[in-house]
Write a structure and sequence with these properties.
Elements (H helix, E strand, L loop, with lengths): L18 E10 L7 E4 L17 E10 L7 E2 L6 E2 L4 E3 L5 E10 L5 E4 L9 E9 L12 E8 L13 E11 L12 E8 L4 E12 L14 E11 L3
Antiparallel strand pairs: 1-9, 2-8, 3-7, 3-9, 4-8, 5-7, 6-7, 10-14, 11-13, 11-14, 12-13
Length: 240
Amino acid sequence: MLPGLGGIVVGSSAPDNIVFVGGAVADFAGSAATSRTLALNSGLTGGIASSASSGDFVIAVFATGSNTDRTLAITDGTDPYELIGSEMYVDGSAFDVNLRVAFKRITADTQVTFGPTGSDNDAGCYAVYVFRNVDTVTPIDVAVTIATGTDSDVDPASITPNSQNTFLVVIGAGGEVEEVGNFTSSELTDFLATSSNDLYDCILGIGHVPSWPGGAFNPAAFGNSNVNAWAAMTIALRSA
């Protein structure tokens, strides 16, 4: 787990600002046995390139609708991605949500593997978000902040970075009884969203705020997000 602590680094030169390479999002019906993948070498959108390069920093997100607490898997095909914070589970009585957020600094990686969801009834939603020029020693600037709720809109928690020119990443996921469309956000850049229908539906959204100058940032609640159970995480990435 990352330390998530530290102050502004003062040196002889300014840090290289983080660059958003691109992202991708997808979903699948529940499966107790089958995983899914997202490519890193093609298909990324919203940033400077359609593919990641060696040394890029990847945030991978996996959410499921469910009726129980499950342990989710995110790997590079062989080795697990490193967990950011802790895996989140919110009990919405009948319809729950599981959310796992993890990272890896890639080398020759071509894809990220998600799943399985743990049950044929648990729909899955997943995403990758790729960045360049993230600090190699302390990529997570401060401890992530989390928020959870039931039968309400997804309202991610505020965060206050220690460093200048951080990139803020905001993630929200929900479990619901009936798929009602995708989350929206008029505030976050390159916002990606998806949802999947099964006995226990899932819905997922991820976006960012580039080059945050400092001070507290309190993300607005996601639009179209009143769900039975939800979990959200706010992350500050430190520039190299």
